[in-house]
Each structure stands twice: as structure tokens, then as C-alpha cells.
Design a protein that fits this description.
It is a single chain. This protein is mainly α and about 650 residues long. The protein folds into 3 domains: about 30-95 and about 115-165 and about 175-275, no CATH class; about 280-480, no CATH class; about 530-570 and about 600-659, no CATH class. Helix content is about 55%, strand content about 5%. It contains 25 helices and 8 strands. The chain has a two-stranded antiparallel ribbon. A two-stranded antiparallel ribbon has the order 3-4. Strands 5-8 form a two-stranded antiparallel ribbon.
Length: about 650
């Protein structure tokens, strides 16, 4: 910003110029300003913004987040308490500098929050009037707001970064991203909420702190709007969009952050009626000054919701949150009234109409420029889009309802058999990683959103085209189809060289992640569907047999006749075991591979699946006679199997000796 020649008044007395070029080379700051600069820069430091695989829904309780909240609450008090300790700002008088603006760069500027006549001690009050005490009271609060605003809400787009010529110093910096971290957006929302609470706590006592509360929102609202609009434009189409959406909803609802309103630990107002608009005239000035934040961003969100999967619970909830806010009492009327003031064809008799018209036009000129064509939110073109959007919501509602009914029906049918199956095999994983309880909320969200949109735009039911809207059958079938993990596991089981598993991942967008075990398959940890005692016992038995008859098993496995084919059905094939490099002192060990020869494996008999299938078969064939012990029969079958293998191996041994 300063390199572009844009010097806000807040920095005008802090810049140091080079003697030759007269360009700013350094900032002169006191210790508090120096610390706050580095604290705010930590959140946007490109070295700390390396995009890793981050789950934005994890609410990190870091020291930085806790400190940021403490600084906001202390230096922007909502209870009209003074900011302690009261100390001077160490102001160094410097001659006024000429502010040069770059004609190529368009940027929302934030002037000094308080007028210089209030901040600067006046020599006309030698007796120490109240204005001499203003600077020690508010200079830290102004610094916090200005620095956080310049660092946290300065939106830098990637294409503008890449188009600029890089110096040797800048070329070594990592690339900044247009998508901010979840921690960044959460702190921006906390900053916006604190500004609302701070501004709404003004009591009109004509003090410097009260003056700061009165003018703080008009000074920063333009930059907040620009940040939100650009962040919404670049944010991907996924559920993490709710972070920036909630920040926007917090900005356009200042009536939710009044001093008399208290919040529960869950973040909800304890008295819902106090968080609504009761006096439209009190908030009309804010709505008119931030008309673009309501109407322009709403129209920006409309095509986004049209492309979003509204059957997904998180997306349906986001739509419901937006329609719930805009359907609040008095808000649609206030927006429509503010827009009518901008229509020159409508004659008005109210004196205030000229005031709101000038305010809205000036805001559009400052934020979007003279070439911006404002499209009213309640215009015919927008309403036609809304009518088409209602049909999309209706189809999503039918699809969500059909999915819920199908899931309930599937859970009801064969409930007993499914319970037994899940007891031995674990819970079934499907393509749908969303629970039935969440699915049941979607039809209610969509139905309520549809009704609220009709009320906001006052659309008549007969104006909605009565087209044949049916549920999306393809989407319905994809949710209820066999699991992705199961189909991939079936494909992996065919390939014996990939003894891996697919582990469901709930916190990421993909459903499964393939994890491959590269060691000895017989040394795999005991699975949940296996009996630990039998696994260990079978392993010891097979280890003795394989070590004694290793040569005979390999010889008969490699035969091409009937005996060789029979051996391949019984004996496990050769397996390649890989040993990965391990970290040791001074480096890594080398990787290695080892081929395990054909071997006998009885581990399959230790699985609960085999025992359950055998018990069901035996129980159905024994005419339900309870005196037959399935454990005894299972052990007898296993002994017969061992006897068969023992005889088979003895025959192999005898044949080799004869040769």
C-alpha cells in the first residue's frame, strides 16, 4: 500500500523518506505500535500461510487466537470502561508530507478514525481541558483498529501478485493465496462483531472514546465490504464457505450486538427477541450506508446457490441461514425503501429521502467506481432469477425427501439380520458419509427457505411456473448405492499383491484412503472380525509346518499338473515383503525386499465370518437339535482339515524321498 504511493493519514506522521528519492523507506513506531504491527502481520505472513491439508472446521484454540480476543476486548471496551493503563503515545512531531496517490491502483482508503482536532492536544487550552486528555485514552484503540484493518482485511488477489514485477527480495517470498485460512476468517468475524459491540455501546457523553465509537463503523465499513465481496468471489464450492458466510451475516446484523443482549456459551442470544429489529429508524442509517453489503453480495450469492448441491445438509443450512436473516421483520422493507430512494423516476415527499439517496450513491461511487451499474435487489430481472431458483429448491426438497424415506425404509427392513451382520463385520460404510439424523433436517431447511424467499420478494404462488418437478433420481441412486470403499476393497482383494485396506475418512472430502501393508501378511495385527487366540495358535501351527515342509510345498506349488493346480488352491502364493527406510541417527536405513515362498495359512478359520457361516449352515442342517455343540463340530472340522493337510504333506515327503 505504501509502496503504491497510498499513504493514509494514520501513517503520515510515521513515515521516514529517503533523502535522494523522497520515497518512504521506513516506519517510525513506538513500542506498542511495533508489537501490534508484528502481531497482526503474523496472521497474514506468507511464510506462515503455506497451504497444507487443513481442516477448516477444527476450531484451533491457539495462543494467537486467545491473545487476539483479549486485545479486542481490552482495547475496544463495550462497558465504557477506560483503557488501562493511561499512557501517552510518544508522538514525535513531523512536518506534514504530501500524499501521493497512484492512479493505477484503486483501493478503499480508511482515514484516521478521529479528527486531528480531537487527537492533538490544543495549545488553546493551557489549563488542561478535556481535549488534552483525549490522546492517551484512545490512541491504542485507534491503533488496534487501524492495524488489524490494514493487515487482516487487506485482500490481495493471486493474479495481481503474479502480474507485478518482482524484485530480488520479493521473488524469494512464498506465494500468497486468495483463499484465507479458517483461523483468519474466524478472527475477521470476531473483529467485526467486536466493532459492532464497541460502536453500539456509545452513550453520548462527548468523550474521545465515545466519539471513536460513533465514527468507527463509517470509517471501516467500506474495507470490510470489499474484503467480504472478494473472499466470497474466490471461495470454493464446498461446506467451508460457511466461514465467510457467517462473517458476512455478522456484519449486516448490527442489531444482534447491542449491550443489552447477552449470549449463551453456544453463541446464541439468550433472548431471541432482543436480537431482532425493533426500531427500524435506528438501523436505517446503517442499512443505507451499507446497501451494497446487503443487495450486491446477495445477488453475488444467488448464482452460487444455484450451482450448489442443496441436498447436502451443510449447503441447505447455509441457504436457510441467509433466508432467515433477510426475512427478519422490517429488513426487506428497509432494503426496498433504500433502493427506491435511488430511483429518480419516483417522486418523494419525505425530506429524508434525499439524505438516503445521497448516502447510497456516494457509497456506490466510493466502493465500486463511477462505471458500476447498480442492479436493484427487487428488480424484475432479480425476481425472475429468484423464481427459477425456487424451482431448484423444490427439486432439491423432493430429492432430499425421497432419500430420507429410502434410508428409513432400508433401516427398517431386515433390521435383525443387519444387526447381527454389523456385530461381526462392523458398521456398513456407504457413499453417504452423512447420518440419517442430518438428512432428516434437510427437507425442513429447504421448505422454510422456500417460504421465506417468497415472503422476502412478495412472490405470488400463481407467478411460479407450475412445471413438472421431480426428484433427481440419479442423485438419489448415487447416495443409496453400494459403498465406494466396498467396491474398491473388492477390486483390491482380487489383486493379491495389494494387501491393503480402505479406511473411511470423515473429516476430508474424499470418502476413503487406501493404506497398504507391505510386511508379512501373517503378521498383520488381529482385526476386529478375528479371534485373537485362534489367530495366534494357527500362526504357530503353520509356522511349524512351513518350516519343516518348505521344500516340498515349493516343489509341488511349481508343478504344472493336477497336483500343482490343487496345491495352488490350498497354499498361499509367494509374496513380496518390503522393508521401508527407517530414520536412524545420522540418516536413514536402506530399503529392502524379500520374497516369501509358498506357504500354508489357516488364518481364515479364525475369522468370525467363517465361524458364523459354519454355525448357520450346521444349525440349519441338524434339524435345530440343541445338543449338537457347534464348538465341538468346528474343532472336529478343523482337526479333519489338519489331518488332511498332514496326510497330504506326508505324501509329498514320501514322493520326494522316492525320487
Amino acid at each position: 500500500m505504501l509502496e503504491d504511493g497510498i499513504v493514509p493519514p494514520f501513517y503520515s506522521d510515521k513515515l521516514k523518506d529517503e533523502h535522494n528519492s523522497r520515497m518512504p523507506s521506513a516506519l517510525s513506531m513506538n513500542p506498542f505500535e511495533y508489537y501490534i504491527f508484528h502481531f497482526a502481520y503474523h496472521l497474514t505472513n506468507p511464510w506462515l500461510q503455506l497451504q497444507l491439508l487443513e481442516n477448516v472446521w477444527i476450531n484451533w484454540e491457539t495462543v494467537y487466537v486467545q491473545l487476539a480476543h483479549l486485545y479486542l476486548y481490552h482495547f475496544l471496551p463495550r462497558d465504557n470502561s477506560p483503557v488501562l493503563p493511561i499512557i501517552g503515545p510518544y508522538v514525535k512531531k513531523s512536518p506534514p508530507r504530501k500524499i501521493v496517490h497512484s492512479p493505477e491502483t484503486k483501493r478503499v482508503q480508511t482515514p484516521r478514525l478521529l479528527r486531528s482536532m480531537i487527537l492533538s492536544p490544543s495549545t488553546a487550552h493551557p489549563q488542561g481541558g478535556p481535549q488534552q486528555q483525549c490522546l492517551p485514552q484512545v490512541w491504542r484503540s485507534e491503533t488496534i483498529v487501524q492495524v488489524f484493518l490494514d493487515f487482516w482485511l487487506e485482500y490481495t488477489e493471486e493474479e495481481k501478485i503474479t502480474s507485478q514485477p518482482l524484485t530480488s527480495t520479493l521473488s524469494s517470498l512464498p506465494r500468497r493465496h486468495s483463499i484465507h485460512s479458517g483461523e483468519h476468517i474466524r478472527l475477521v468475524r470476531a473483529f467485526i462483531k467486536t466493532l459492532h459491540e464497541f460502536a453500539n455501546s456509545a452513550i453520548g457523553d462527548r468523550s474521545a472514546m465515545d466519539e471513536l465509537k460513533r465514527i468507527i463503523l463509517p470509517s471501516v465499513q467500506g474495507k470490510i465490504y470489499t474484503f467480504l465481496r472478494k473472499a466470497i468471489h474466490h471461495w470454493p464450492l464446498d461446506s467451508s464457505f460457511r466461514l465467510i458466510l457467517e462473517a458476512w451475516l455478522s456484519f449486516i446484523q448490527p442489531w444482534r450486538y447491542v449491550p443489552e443482549l447477552s449470549y449463551s456459551p453456544q453463541g446464541r442470544p439468550e433472548d431471541e427477541d432482543k436480537g431482532k429489529i425493533h426500531d427500524p429508524q435506528r438501523w436505517m442509517s446503517f442499512v443505507a450506508n451499507n446497501l451494497l453489503a446487503y443487495t450486491s453480495i446477495f445477488q453475488q450469492l444467488l448464482p452460487r446457490f444455484m450451482r450448489t448441491d442443496l441436498v447436502a445438509p451443510k449447503n441447505a443450512l447455509m441457504l436457510f441461514r441467509v433466508t432467515k436473516v433477510f426475512s427478519q421483520p422490517y429488513l426487506p422493507q428497509m432494503l426496498a425503501e433504500a433502493e427506491t430512494y435511488m430511483d429518480d423516476n419516483i417522486t418523494r415527499s419525505k425530506i429524508s429521502s434525499n439524505q438516503w439517496s445521497a448516502v447510497a450513491r456516494q457509497q456506490i461511487l466510493e466502493l465500486e467506481g463511477p462505471s458500476y451499474q447498480y442492479l436493484p435487489m427487487f428488480s424484475e430481472s432479480t425476481v425472475s432469477q429468484i423464481v427459477w431458483f425456487l424451482s431448484i429448491i423444490k427439486q432439491a426438497h423432493l430429492t432430499a425427501t425421497s432419500i430420507v424415506e429410502a434410508l428409513e425404509k432400508r433401516n427398517t427392513e431386515k433390521k435383525f439380520i443387519r444387526t447381527i451382520w454389523e456385530f461381526f463385520n462392523g458398521e456398513e460404510h456407504s457413499n453417504d458419509d452423512i447420518g440419517l439424523a442430518e438428512r432428516k433436517r434437510v427437507p425442513g431447511f429447504l421448505a422454510t427457505s422456500q417460504q421465506q424467499i417468497i415472503e422476502i420478494f412478495q412472490i405470488k404462488v400463481e407467478d411460479i411456473p407450475q412445471v413438472a418437478i421431480v426428484a433427481d433420481q440419479e442423485y438419489h441412486d448415487s447416495i443409496l448405492s453400494d459403498s465406494f470403499c466396498q467396491s474398491q476393497c473388492e477390486g483390491a482383494c482380487v489383486d493379491g499383491s495389494r494387501p491393503g485396506v480402505f479406511v473411511p475418512i470423515q473429516e476430508e472430502r474424499q470418502h476413503c484412503r487406501y493404506i497398504e501393508y507391505m510386511g508379512d501378511p501373517e503378521l498383520l495385527p488381529v482385526r476386529s472380525n478375528e479371534c485373537e487366540i485362534l489367530v495366534r495358535w494357527f500362526y504357530r501351527v503353520c509356522e511349524v509346518i512351513n518350516s519343516k515342509y518348505n521344500l516340498q510345498i515349493t516343489t509341488f506349488y511349481n508343478r504344472e499338473d493336477f497336483v500343482g493346480r490343487l496345491t495352488k488352491k490350498i497354499i498361499q502364493p509367494p509374496t513380496t515383503v518390503r522393508q521401508l527406510p527407517k530414520r536412524v541417527n545420522g540418516g536413514f536405513t536402506g530399503g529392502s525386499e524379500k520374497i516369501i515362498p509358498p506357504r500354508l495359512s489357516l488364518r481364515i478359520f479364525a475369522s468370525y465370518n467363517f465361524m458364523t457361516a459354519f454355525f448357520n449352515l450346521f444349525y440349519s442342517l441338524t434339524d435345530h437339535r440343541l445338543w449338537h455343540s457347534w464348538i465341538f463340530i468346528y474343532c472336529q472340522l478343523f482337526m479333519d482339515f489338519l489331518y488332511y493337510h498332514w496326510g497330504y504333506l506326508r505324501a509329498l515327503d514320501h514322493e520326494i524321498e522316492c525320487q
